[in-house]
C-alpha cells in the first residue's frame, strides 16, 4: 500500500517544543473492498489479482464477466463466453482469495464418483415347506408320593417305635393306638394277668403283630392269640352306624369301591402271610373266620387278658361286649378302637355300661378308648 502524500513516515507531524517527538507507527492500510451491493466482480478482481496472485492487471480494463455474485449473464456476455472461460482460473483465484480472507475457506472442485449400480439380487430360493410339528412326548408318570414315616411323641421308647414301624404296612391303626396296645401287652406280661389276647376286626393283622412282637421281646410265647374277622370286608351297617359328622356308614360304603380302606377287605391268606414275618409260634395264633355274631362266643377262649374291639358297627360291638366282657379277667385291658369315630360303636359301649352298671374309666387314645377292668 501507499502512504499519505506530504507526510514523512515515522515522524510525528508536529511535536511540541522541548519534547522529543514520539515515533508514530502507521499500519498498512488495506484496500477497501467493494461496498456496492451490485459491484462488478471484475473491478474487485483487478485489485485482488495483483495483490494475491502477483498478476498485473492492465489499468482501465475491466472484467467482461458481468455475472457477479448473482450468476446472471447478459446477451453481450454470452457472445464473449470463450474469453470468460479463458480467464476462469484468475476468477477462481480471486474469489478464493476473498473467501480465504473473510472466512478462512476456499472453493475446490471435487469429482463426484459415478453412482454404482448394485447387482441384481439373485432370486431367493423357495422356502422349504414347514415340517410337521413333532408329536409332544407323553408326560412321564409322576412317582407316587411315599407316605411319610409316622411321627412319634418324645416319650415313646425305641422298642415301641421299631415295632410300630414294622407293623404299619399291615394296620390302619394310628401310632398312638398301636402304642397303647404295646403298653397293654407289657402290662399283662409283667403282672401275670392270665388269659388269651382277643381281637375282633383285624384287617391285615398289624395290631396283633404288634402284640406278638412285644411278647417276643419279653420272652413270652405261651399266650394264645385269637383273630376274629370275616376276612371278606365289612358287614352291612345299620341305621345306628353314623360317622361322627352324622353321615350314614351305608352311604359312605356305597360311594366307594371295595378296594378302599373303608371296606377293610383282606383275605385270610394275606393275614397269614403277614404273620409269617413274625417268629411267634404258629400254633398259638388262631384265625377265626366269619361274622362275630356267628363265631362268638362259641369259638372264643374262656379267659381273656386283652379284649380289643375294632368291628366299627353298633350291632357287632354290642354283641362282643355282651358275650366277651364277662370273660375279660379282672385287671384285664379293654380297648375300643372306634369309640370316637363311629357313633354306633360309641352307642353300643355306652348302652352296655349303663345296662350293666360297670364302672370303667375310659381314657382317650386319640379316636379310641382304653380301660382296665376292675
UniProtKB/TrEMBL annotation:
The entry's keywords: Methyltransferase, Transferase
Pfam family, one: TylF
Composition-biased stretches (Basic residues): 1-12, 19-37
Record's keyword annotation contains Plastid: no
Superkingdom classification of source: Bacteria
Segments of skewed composition (Pro residues): 120-142
GO biological process per UniProt: methylation
GO MF assignments: methyltransferase activity
Sequence intervals crossing the membrane: none
Keyword presence, Methyltransferase: yes
Annotated spans, Disordered: 1-37, 117-154
Coiled-coil parts of chain: none
Name listed for the protein in its UniProt record: Macrocin-O-methyltransferase domain-containing protein
Species of origin: Streptomyces filamentosus NRRL 15998
